[in-house]
């Protein structure tokens, strides 16, 4: 359940970010579009790579899946802006997918929850920075009165962080119980 929640968070935030960039692509034909493609494809692929590296424990398949995910994201974000943006995003997605899969595969099976949760947290923060960057670019191009608080962003971010926190706590409790049982079995083996 933990991994399903973490993967869902990555996919949902990625889709929302792709949608936001696509809707504003005409205003992002500068460095901010390029940065958006690079950051999102890198962070999404590295985060998915860590998760898949822990789940699959096969570096080949986790790398292929996470690198492919990074390339698809780069194409979805970058192509509507420019070919160069897509290329930069694809390079970042490939690098992120490889690094994430390696890290996930190397994590010990008894101590991966903190790293997966940390990567998802960094991913969420990265998406929020991209949203801020896009909003800043839009407001610089057509100034609008800023008298409203973005309640929807605050609520969805808070809910996502609460889901992340509670999933981490619940999964950590399950792992602690499994670890204690392993220690007890090990100690019983030494007494006989």
General description of the model:
This protein is mainly α and 192 residues long. The chain has one domain (2-191). The chain contains 6 helices and no strands. Helix 1 packs antiparallel against helix 2 and helix 2 runs antiparallel to helix 3. The longest helix is centred in the last third of the chain and has 41 residues, at 151-191. The protein is flat.
Q: How are the SSEs ordered, and which strands pair?
A:
Layout: H1 2-23, H2 31-56, H3 59-78, H4 83-106, H5 113-141, H6 151-191
Quickly describe the structure.
The chain is mostly helical. It has 6 helices and no strands. The chain has one domain (2-191).
Characteristic terms for this protein:
192 residues; 84% helix; single chain; mainly alpha; 6 helices; 0% strand
What's the shape? flat
The number of strands is 0
Low-pLDDT residue intervals, each spanning 5 or more residues: none
- Percent range for β-strand residues: under 5%
What class would the helix/strand composition place it in?
mainly alpha
**So how many helices?**
6
How many domains is the backbone divided into? Answer: 1
* Amino-to-carboxy terminus distance: 37 Å
How much helical structure, as a percent, in the residues? over 70%
Rg (C-alpha, Å): 19 Å
Largest sheet entry: none
**SSE ordering:** HHHHHH
The average pLDDT score comes to: 86
